[in-house]
Amino acid sequence: MSPIVIVGAGIIGTTLAYALQRRGENVILLDSDTPGKGASYGNMASIAVTEFMPASRPGIWAQMPKWLLDPEGPVRIQPGYLPRLMPWFLRFLLASRPSRLRELEAAGAVLCKRVYEDLDALLKETALEHMIGAEGCLSLYTDDTEFRADREHIEILERFGFRHEILDGKAIRELEPSLTTAIGKAVLFPDNRSISDPYRLVLALSEKFLALGGQLRQGTVAGFVHNGSSVSEIRLSDGRAIAASKIVLAAGAFTGRLSAMLGEPIPLETERGYHTQIMAPGITMRHSIIWPARAFMVTPTAGGIRVGGTVEMAGLDAPPNYRRAKVLVKRAKEALPALHVEQVSEWMGHRPALPDTVPVMGPSANYDNLWYSTGHGHLGLTYGATSARLMADLVTGRQPPVDMKPYRVDRF
User: Fold this and answer.
1) Nearest to 134, CA basis, from 288, 280, 302, 297
2) CB distance 306 to 276 below 8 Å
3) What domain range includes position 31?
4) Is 319 in the same domain as 383?
5) Residue 58, Cα to own-chain centre: how many angstroms?
6) How much is the pTM?
7) pLDDT tens digits, 244-282
8) Taking each helix axis from N to C terminus, what angle separates 11-22 and 380-395, rounded to the nearest 10 degrees?
9) Is residue 283 part of a domain?
10) pLDDT tens-digit profile of 189-221?
């Protein structure tokens, strides 16, 4: 029998390939690059269980005009790309209806509520427990005005029962002495823990997958062979073909191009994210930090600290604009005055963004042996183990432990 082929070797595809191989399936993991070299290479290393809320909520809309007019703002749309973005943006607008927002919040919360149940089990069975830290994340505010501006976020977390603790000046600097005294209030999210190196986590999981007998192939998908209601073969750009009994498309922001080849378009865009990795920061950090009013995050990871954030909508093909990364570092120095910025590297990657912020996880609406696992946005690392558990159930014909209807591909 032909193997199951997973297209995409980021955290989502690699974790699913491992989960299926461990269940005794015969799996090929296919990617145009080596595992973990896409968005998984440069994410902010955070298991961000408190960040599931839709991007289209009212608090975001209120700030959007100011952000778009600011060349250094947290959201930038490349002017030439705006016409192509409009269909996606209209769906983003539809997702902001109050009744729809409540549904989307619940769909995200369901996944985040079970993240550690699935992640702890994955790390234990792969002997990778050492790759997750014990400390959480601090959300920073200079004063009550900034804190009130983020109150909508806190209220959503309170409604769903996610842990958090509000801190004032002295308590904040007892946790992170390197923080500026300009920070007057913070919220500690103890469950937003960090991965020591997200790229090495993907590599380690790919090695575990190979050790179980899985196969890794490198190549660019050029098309598919399908007969009626099933897809029998994947065609690669170099002329090779891979026969498949089942296929899962998990190629992140590039999944939309693949689904279009099959006549099943997905409104998938890319939020281009930037980071600067600082290897000799001159400070130590126990927690990751996020400053909502400045739209950046800093995480101790990969042997140094990583500064990232903001959203750039410019498609998959535009060259990087590293000014975005430099702005983030400038803001990080406002929070961490003693930060040294010397041994640095800059990176840009493509987060897969759906207009309603909820991932697509489920079967194709057109083909009976095809599934999708994509659109996890900035929560790919967070959802990795949970997505693998749910998708492995679907692909092998088992009943997943949660209702999968909110994540169906034909919901748009």
Assistant:
1) 288
2) yes
3) 4-41+199-267+357-407
4) no
5) 22
6) 0.96
7) 999 999 999 999 999 999 999 999 999 999 999 999 999
8) 40
9) yes
10) 999 999 999 999 999 999 999 999 999 999 999
The candidate with the shortest Cα–Cα distance to 375, out of 363, 360, 388, is 360
- The alpha carbon dihedral of 6, 8, 13, 19 has a sign of positive
- Specify the CATH number for the domain of residue 140: 3.30.9.10
| CA distance readout (Å), 279 to 252, 282, 320, 341 | 28, 9, 22, 9
Cβ(255)–Cβ(372) under 8 Å? yes
**214 plus 260 within the same structural domain:** yes
Nearest alpha-carbon partner for 367 in 268, 242, 263:
263
Domain co-membership, 56 together with 22: no
Contact by Cβ (8 Å): 373, 13: yes
Tell me, yes or no, whether 113 lies in a domain.
no
Q: Structural domain tally of the chain?
A: 2
Domain-located, residue 234: yes
62-83 per-position pLDDT tens digit: 666 666 667 677 788 888 898 9
Same domain? For 92 and 164 the reply is yes
| Amino acid sitting at position 113 | K
Task: Write a three-state SS string for the chain.
Answer: CCCEEEECCCHHHHHHHHHHHHCCCCEEEEECCCCCCCHHHHCCCECCCCCCCCCCCHHHHHHHHHHHHCCCCCEEECHHHHHHHHHHHHHHHHCCCHHHHHHHHHHHHHHHHCHHHHHHHHHHHCCCHHHECCCCEEEEECCHHHHHHCHHHHHHHHHHCCCCEEEEHHHHHHHCCCCCCCCCEEEEECCCCEECCHHHHHHHHHHHHHHCCCEEEECCEEEEEEECCEEEEEEECCCCEEECCEEEECCHHHHHHHHHHCCCCCCCEEEEEEEEEECCCCCCCCCEEEECCCCEEEEEECCEEEEEEEEEECCCCCCCCCHHHHHHHHHHHHHCCCCCCCCEEEEEEEEEECCCCCCEEEECCCCCCEEEEECCHHHHHHHHHHHHHHHHHHHCCCCCCCCCHHHCCCCC
Q: Are residues 308 and 342 in the same domain?
A: yes
Same domain, yes or no, for 157 and 280? yes
What is the separation, in whole angstroms, between the first and last Cα of the chain? Answer: 34
